[in-house]
């Protein structure tokens, strides 16, 4: 996501207690004390933390406000992208007219595994569109000869992009094992998520050995994908935490050999998301000050914390939130870090990644039919890299391929941008350490949040930020549960296809978007001068398609009554749908009359 500049956010004051309340009676006996909160932050964990904290403390009426300045939230920022950070806003390059549509690598989010992200973006009214989450693997032998190459971006043509694979029994065994791997991984994750007291000490190598997967499965699928994401050797990959890696595979649809989901992605520049949050915070009475990097946090007279900035200025606060990488949090705390803080935060190790935006097709599969959204290439000796095909992920209409590669074996040709970031290492030690976060959260007035508390990605950062804000307010953390993905049967998929074709033919003006539970998105029509209305429907049950296919308009109404679908805009969503249907009915009638001539 785009970098969030260092900022100080002055939040609105809390409600002033009335004289009849216990707090009001106590207030007479002691002077009013100013509540001051500070947070050194990085990217979206901080944004949600600020949004949740300030909105929860917003006064119900202006007459109940305490004097201005009784509550203050101070946010300082980072200078580097967060873990798995996508690219910053494009600079002046020849391809800027295309890049303005695609300023990041990781803008996709599905309702199943990114429930907080989706809820947050939907609440902000951010416009979404469909994105592709397919992947490919291309391996080479150490001598440079071609190894195995396959993908799932274009169905069977991608799977058999390398024709020699048709006759390889080892290849077909790998295909069967990938299907088995998905079931084994989901069963393993479900067991551990429903039994949090069970230790997740198993390594990926132990998991593979216990389930009897072949060496070809590891070399042509598992190892390239893992090594492309985390720069480890063959043995290094097998020593990673099984729970962490399998969770990552599930959350990013790397277990899907076929029928991978079409996930929503942010349509506009992601800076617009930051601007929307900034506007929301300002509408709540916040004042935002940028460029205030925090150098250190230290105790102050045993009753607060002194926050020292790089320019030498300092402030004192009652509580501090450190929404930064774990190593950065320890660096800010310095010698005052406690034993448990050193033990828990110190268990998180990071790996450095160089990232290139380029147009070099040599870092894509040799067979163009294997090209997919994620492309893993390399050798077992020199390591692997991952290349994102932005044209495919973010629907960039250009004959020129725009590619983003993490840790390429050599500097690509036609480089447009280069930057660096860090990723948390999914180690067993880190997974065990994070189970003890309650030993440091809120102790001595210091809170911690960041994507490292999960899998190192945006949903994890948002969850950590929300939990921290609720903890600071003294409320129980109310994190969203991931909804069950709507996976239609073959017959339901056929009915869905028929309904989708009908909508595609019928709706030509106005924009109707169907978002299935699980992330798949279908868009019909386009807003134009004849009809600028847009309606976003969230489909919860495949019965929705059966009702429309068998009963038409009455089926649509019955499906709505039965809760098979709902609207993103709860106030005008239904009205907008009716307006779209009426506009298209009239448009089709006018076109028939025009063809007849009367």
UniProtKB/TrEMBL annotation:
Region annotation Disordered: where it falls in the sequence: 1-34, 79-107
Signal peptide range: none
InterPro entries according to UniProt: FAD/NAD-bd_sf, Zeta_carotene_desat/Oxidored
Transmembrane regions: none
Basic residues biased stretches: 25-34
Any GO molecular function: oxidoreductase activity
Compositional bias per record (Pro residues), positions renumbered to this chain: 80-91
Protein name: Amine oxidase domain-containing protein
């Amino acid at each position: 996501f785009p970098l969030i500049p260092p900022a100080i956010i002055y939040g609105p004051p809390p409600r002033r207690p009335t004289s009849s309340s216990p707090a009001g009676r106590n207030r007479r006996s002691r002077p009013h004390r100013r509540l001051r909160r500070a947070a050194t932050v990085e990217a979206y964990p901080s944004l949600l933390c600020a949004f949740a904290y300030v909105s929860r403390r917003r006064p119900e009426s202006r007459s109940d406000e305490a004097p201005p300045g009784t509550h203050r939230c101070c946010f300082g920022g980072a200078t580097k992208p967060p873990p798995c950070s996508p690219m910053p806003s494009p600079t002046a390059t020849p391809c800027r007219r295309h890049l303005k549509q695609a300023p990041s690598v990781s803008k996709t989010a599905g309702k199943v595994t990114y429930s907080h992200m989706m809820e947050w973006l939907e609440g902000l009214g951010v416009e979404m569109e469909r994105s592709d989450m397919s992947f490919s693997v291309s391996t080479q032998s150490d001598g440079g000869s071609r190894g195995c190459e396959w993908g799932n971006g274009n169905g069977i043509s991608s799977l058999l992009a390398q024709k020699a694979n048709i006759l390889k029994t080892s290849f077909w065994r790998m295909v069967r094992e990938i299907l088995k791997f998905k079931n084994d991984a989901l069963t393993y994750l479900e067991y551990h998520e429903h039994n949090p007291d069970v230790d997740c000490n198993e390594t990926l190598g132990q998991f593979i050995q216990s389930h009897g997967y072949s060496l070809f499965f590891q070399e042509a699928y598992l190892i390239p994908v893992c090594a492309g994401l985390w720069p480890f050797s063959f043995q290094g990959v097998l020593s990673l935490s099984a729970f962490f890696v399998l969770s990552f595979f599930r959350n990013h649809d790397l277990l899907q050999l076929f029928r991978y989901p079409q996930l929503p992605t942010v349509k506009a520049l992601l800076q617009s998301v930051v601007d929307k949050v900034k506007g929301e915070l300002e509408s709540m009475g916040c004042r935002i000050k940028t460029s205030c990097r925090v150098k250190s946090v230290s105790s102050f007279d045993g009753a607060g914390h002194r926050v020292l900035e790089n320019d030498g200025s300092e402030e004192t606060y009652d509580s501090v939130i450190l929404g930064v990488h774990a190593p950065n949090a320890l660096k800010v705390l310095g010698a005052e870090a406690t034993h448990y803080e050193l033990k828990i935060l110190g268990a998180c190790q990071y790996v450095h990644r160089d990232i290139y935006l380029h147009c070099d097709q040599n870092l894509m599969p040799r067979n163009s039919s294997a090209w997919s959204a994620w492309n893993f290439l390399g050798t077992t000796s020199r390591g692997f890299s991952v290349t994102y095909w932005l044209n495919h992920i973010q629907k960039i209409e250009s004959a020129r391929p725009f590619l983003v590669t993490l840790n390429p074996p050599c500097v690509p040709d036609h480089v447009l941008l280069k930057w660096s970031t860090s990723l948390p290492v999914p180690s067993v030690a880190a997974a065990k350490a994070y189970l003890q976060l309650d030993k440091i959260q809120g102790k001595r007035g210091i809170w911690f949040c960041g994507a490292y508390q999960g899998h190192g990605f945006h949903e994890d950062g948002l969850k950590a930020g929300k939990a921290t804000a609720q903890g600071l307010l003294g409320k129980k953390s109310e994190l969203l549960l991931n909804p069950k993905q709507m996976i239609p049967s073959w017959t339901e998929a056929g009915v869905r296809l028929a309904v989708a074709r009908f909508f595609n033919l019928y709706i030509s003006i106005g924009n109707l978007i169907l978002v299935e539970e699980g992330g798949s998105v279908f868009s019909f029509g386009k807003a134009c001068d004849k009809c600028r209305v847009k309606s976003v429907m969230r489909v919860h049950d495949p019965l929705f398609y059966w009702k429309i296919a068998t009963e038409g308009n009455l089926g649509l109404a019955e499906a709505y009554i039965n809760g098979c679908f709902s609207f993103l805009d709860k106030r005008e969503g239904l009205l907008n749908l009716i307006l779209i249907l009426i506009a298209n009915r009239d448009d089709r009638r006018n076109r028939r009359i025009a063809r007849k001539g009367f």
